[in-house]
Amino acid sequence: MSTGIERVVKTAGEDGSGHEPTAREDWEQRIADRSDNRSTAPIPDLPPPAGLTVVPGAGHVTLRWEPVEGAVGYLVHRASAGSPPDALTPLDHRGGDVRSVPDTWYVDTTGEPGTSYDYAVASVPTVTACGGLGKAVTGASSPAEATAPEVGLTVDTAAAGEPLPRPWQPMIGSERLSQLLCTDTSGGRVIGTELEAALRRVHDEIGVHTVRAHAILHDDLGVYREVDGEPVHDFTRVDEVYDRIMAIGLRPCVELGFMPRDLASDPERIVFEYGGIVSPPRDWDRWADLISALVRHLMDRYGHDEVLGWDFEVWNEANLSVFWSSTRDDWMRLYDVTAAAIKAVDSRLAVGGPSSAAAGWVDELLEHAGHSGAPVDFVTTHTYGNAPLDLRPTLARYGSTARILWTEWGVTPSHFNPVNDSVSSATFLLHGMRSAAGRLDALSYWVASDHFEELGRPPRLLHGGFGLITVGGIAKARYHALHLLSRLGGTQLPVTATGDGADGLVQTWASRHDDGSLSILIWNHTLDQDKAQGDAALARTVRLRLYGLGEGATAEVTRLDADHGDVTTLAGRLGVGEWPTDRQWDQLRAADTLVAEPAALRHTTGAALLELDLPQPAAVLVKVSP
Question: What's the pLDDT score for residue 17?
Fold first, then answer.
């Protein structure tokens, strides 16, 4: 097994030229040879969607429209009823990032009940472009009703169904993996021990396969230094952290960044409290040598067959100046050089990018690769506060068959935002996963644990951290949502929905297990983060009708709402201060698991009925045994 330390020594070529072409240089030449003058794939000028309707409901309106070929999403606009067309502006649901939605419907809860608004929708061909608006349609929500409106859901339990996609399983995000070795404490808890426990929990309970983290090339892992002007590679500490995640059963998505200090062109350009250097390399050949050496070392240590299943992602969010101090052209050069360095080790290895913020630079990378010949085995990007856009039309436009990996996704891009600790963030997660199912290869929630210190270590238990699990190992509502998803069966079943808020405000994911039992997940959600704490006008009564069950079928329900699985509510009831007392820790741990409760099915001729109260925000998993 390799020691992980490599002193880099250049030797002259045997032909006396002083240089022997390396495998990396061969790959760089192959990229150059494949470079051509193919024309730019133009951004299409898309028409607005046809068939816009606005359906009023208690506390909301639901907009629906026809899909437009080539659209990655749609941007909903609104103005006061009767306003001129130029008064229409994009609706802001307070997600803090991309406002376009990928689906052909939108629930607006931001209006004043009883007030009429004009709505129009534009097609979005790429995140940086927007088509024209269609004709406006007027609608208004109604005030809250005395009793919650009904939503009817009907499931044919004997339907053939189809395989249920699981976009949450391929990947999860994490704080930089060097923290697995950290023996410091936050809130009295050992950072490395708890970060490892959180990653183990998402693997064991949710079935996650891969972990992605920043800063594998950061100086706290000591991968690169120069001695007497010569590079020294040392992967000893990379081995330590990768050994730990491999022992859990996870594998890494290797995000290649940040820049080692001794290799950086501007080591003073940093991001985050831990000082990730965001400048390009001062020596491109030494950067390429480092990448090839790392990949070769990983294959030697973990085996070729294993590492061939890993993804190598180039940098992080270079389309934001905070993460890349140079130009887009320089990042494209970084991509080409890095891809060549990886493929020089084994052409079967997977490399991709642009790992961008807000779905940016996807067109630009594919366009660039079309000219440079650089391989793009997978496309990665990030978004927050919304379901991810549908990138399939973009890839089709460039003739790409790359996999689509959203390597960061969450309810908000903001650190220390209370919405991260809310039940609303859990229903957001369910909404996004359901929307994404079947149109991408991974949707990676950012991040597993609140042991996360980009802007400093957690100041208190509930601080609006990105983690699914708190310091101290307590599941937040978002973690419970992922766990509920993991309990769905392998076959998804069609659902017919009717009533006020059906297939919009109230969403459903019905499934059947191999043993014939059913798991049906139902939730009440709006993207509007002003409603994160709930709105009584949006509460619904759900009447679930199941066809094809025998008289002996039984049911149980697992609830996720303010009274079930909400660590924020529980901590408030216990009077937790900045950090729990020993007794409060014990009380929080005792309530860390959602508990299923029996539910009474009412059997009628040919069907079984179940009635459920569903506040907003809330979710319920119905498990039916035949």
Answer: 39
